[in-house]
């Protein structure tokens, strides 16, 4: 039983001990106690739901940590990207330094990702 349910049960016991009964004030007090009891039940239900959400969130964080370790593993990144495969080029239009893969140099026109202007036209 939750803390609020205990408090309402205590108040209900006091009301019964005082023999508050059938008059209008007694009816009002009994209805108020019933309402408080329902509210305490709802609070207990909400606490349980929040505990379940906390557990789910903890599980999600653990899964994301595992996934990020897999995706951003530094050893794999070092093997995957070789600095020799990229060429540094300064855009003549905006001055931004951009990097292109060696294979891109052999393909179509190179477009600056910053200003969308042609950096190196395709050689014919």
Give an account of the 3D structure.
The strands form two sheets. The chain has a two-stranded antiparallel ribbon. Strands 3-4 form a two-stranded antiparallel sheet. The mean pLDDT is 82. Helix content is 60%, strand content 12%. The chain is α+β, with helices and mostly antiparallel strands. It contains four helices and four strands, in the order αααββαββ. It folds into two domains: 3-76; 82-120. It has helices at 3-17, 24-71, 74-80, 102-105; strands at residues 86-90, 97-101, 110-111, 118-120. The chain is rod-shaped.
Mean pLDDT: 82
Backbone shape: rod-shaped
Helix content: 55-70%
How many helical elements? 4
- The secondary-structure element order is HHHEEHEE
Q: Which helices and strands, and how do they pair?
A:
Layout lengths: L2 H15 L6 H48 L2 H7 L5 E5 L6 E5 H4 L4 E2 L6 E3 L4
Antiparallel strand pairs: 1-2, 3-4
Short recap of the structure:
This protein has 124 residues and is of the alpha+beta class. It has helices at residues 3-17, 24-71, 74-80, 102-105, and strands at 86-90, 97-101, 110-111, 118-120.
Overview features:
124 residues, alpha+beta, two-stranded antiparallel ribbon, 60% helix
């Amino acid at each position: 039983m939750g803390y609020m349910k205990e408090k309402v049960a205590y108040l209900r016991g006091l009301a019964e001990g005082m023999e508050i009964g059938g008059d209008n004030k007694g009816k009002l007090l009994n209805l108020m106690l019933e309402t408080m009891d329902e509210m305490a039940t709802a609070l207990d239900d909400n606490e349980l739901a929040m505990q379940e959400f906390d557990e789910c969130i903890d599980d999600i964080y653990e899964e994301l940590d595992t996934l990020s370790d897999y995706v951003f593993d530094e050893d794999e990144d070092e093997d995957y990207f070789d600095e020799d495969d990229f060429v540094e080029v300064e855009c003549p239009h905006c001055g931004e330094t951009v990097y292109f893969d060696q294979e891109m140099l052999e393909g179509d026109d190179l477009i600056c990702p910053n200003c969308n202007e042609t950096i190196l036209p395709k050689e014919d």
